[in-house]
Specification:
Shape: elongated
Number of helices: 6
Oligomer: single chain
Helix content: over 70%
Number of domains: 1
Low-confidence stretches: none
Order of helices and strands: HEHHHHEH
Largest sheet: 2 strands, parallel
Number of strands: 2
Mean pLDDT: 85
Length: 171
């Protein structure tokens, strides 16, 4: 009886060992650096971001100047004039916060522009990886750039260049 159980146990172990899953790696940073449209999109986003940041900095400087003037002149102002100036400063700060949210918020202009420019590139990469993994039978494809827990992986299973070739960027 023990021999039969041992035999079935060994058969189960061997059959589980023969069903090995296939894995592959990609390096998303490497792929994106080799796609010119991604670099162009990033440059456009950086330029827009710098322009908007300069606008916010200018507005922030105006608020600081208004506050400094208010502090230096507050001794000479009546209570109504103080309230009016304080209200102007508060309104300007609210407008600055709203402008910051409009440009850089979670649903802001930068987010929308990034979605419009970069999402199609990421979708192309995803589709290329999906096609390759379906063709070669990979069970899982891991991004080496974002997988911090990957300590070592053989370069033999890195399909980054194959993905670039599939996208039309031969390396």
């Amino acid at each position: 009886m023990k021999k039969i159980i041992l035999f079935f146990g060994l058969m189960l172990a061997f059959s589980a060992g023969t069903y090995a899953q296939k894995f592959a790696l990609i390096d998303m940073e490497y792929i994106l650096k080799n796609i010119s449209s991604y670099e162009t999109a990033n440059e456009q986003l950086d330029a827009m971001s710098k322009k908007w940041q300069a606008e916010l900095d200018k507005s922030r400087q105006e608020i600081q100047n208004m506050y400094k003037n208010y502090q230096s002149e507050s001794v000479y102002l009546s209570a109504d004039q103080k309230k009016k100036r304080e209200g102007q400063i508060v309104e300007k700060e609210k407008a600055l916060q709203e402008l910051n949210r409009k440009y850089f918020g979670p649903e802001g202009e930068l987010f929308k522009k990034r979605e419009a420019l970069i999402k199609p590139i990421q979708d192309e990469i995803y589709n290329a990886v999906k096609e390759i993994s379906n063709a070669k039978g990979y069970q899982m494809v891991v991004d080496r750039a974002s997988a911090t827990s990957v300590i070592f992986a053989s370069p033999k299973i890195d399909i980054s260049n194959e993905v670039l070739s599939r996208l039309g960027y031969s390396k």
